[in-house]
Amino acid sequence: MTALLRLSSAIDAVTAFIGRSVSWLILVAVLVSAGNAIIRKLFDASSNAWLELQWYLYGAVFLLAAAYTLQRNEHVRIDIATSGLSKKTRDWIDLLGHIFFLLPFCFLMVYLGWPFFWNAFQNGETSLNAGGLTIWPAKLLILVSFILLTAQGFSEIIKRWAVIKGLIEDPTIPKDLPPVVEGLETVAGLSNRVEK
Fold first, then answer.
1. What's the whole-model pTM score?
2. pLDDT score at 179
3. Long-range contacts for 6-11 (Cβ within 8 Å, ≥24 apart)?
4. C-alpha distances out from residue 45 to 36, 40, 52, 142, Å
């Protein structure tokens, strides 16, 4: 299990690096958007390439940060359905959900994503819009994002199993909450989140 936990830590480090790095693309997308708007208003000129670049940048952030979101336990959940359950039951739900839902979906997307990207790359597919960009980089982002999400899914399975077995502390629980935050979580009925 030690080797698996080391593998999980390595995956987590790569995921965190990519997740933090791509966040800067939001700033680039905003600058591209603002520049395009200014040029359109001042010079009555526009470019589909600039619009598509903006979409590519937002898409890159969304896709490449998905694994980081999973790692940070920030993805959308229906907590109202599980908040009354014990911590151990929620851990089992996470483990089984990752094994039977997340990984099969990721495998399917990687399997379908490869030919989707490769065909676009081989054919030099470009946007149908006049002056638009080449399409294959966007399709490559889809493939890469699901490869990263698959790896992070394996990492989460390893960590969740180790938590269930009592080998590690739950990495999704904040370790040093200030007393005010602990009190607010209890008042808000969120004490299950920090329950050990």
1. 0.82
2. 55
3. 7/154, 7/155, 7/158, 8/154, 8/155, 8/158, 8/159, 11/151, 11/152, 11/154, 11/155
4. 9, 5, 15, 31
Residues 179, 183, 184, CA angle at the centre, nearest 5°?
120
What band does 81 get if pLDDT is binned at 50, 70 and 90? Answer: confident
Q: What stretches of 72-167 show up as alpha helix (H) in DSSP? A: 79-82, 87-97, 103-123, 136-164
Task: Express each pLDDT in 38-74 by its tens digit.
Answer: 988 898 887 888 889 999 999 999 999 999 999 998 8
Cβ neighbors of 184 (< 8 A, separation 6 or more) are none
For the CA atoms of 118, 121, 126, 131, the dihedral, rounded to the nearest 10 degrees, stands at: 150
Residue 129 has pLDDT above 90, yes or no: no
DSSP secondary-structure letter at 133?
P
Q: How far is CA 173 from the centre of its chain?
A: 19
pLDDT tens-place string over residues 87-98? 899 999 999 999
Report DSSP state, residue 75: S
For residue 165, what are the CA distances in angstroms to 125, 146, 157, 160?
50, 28, 12, 9
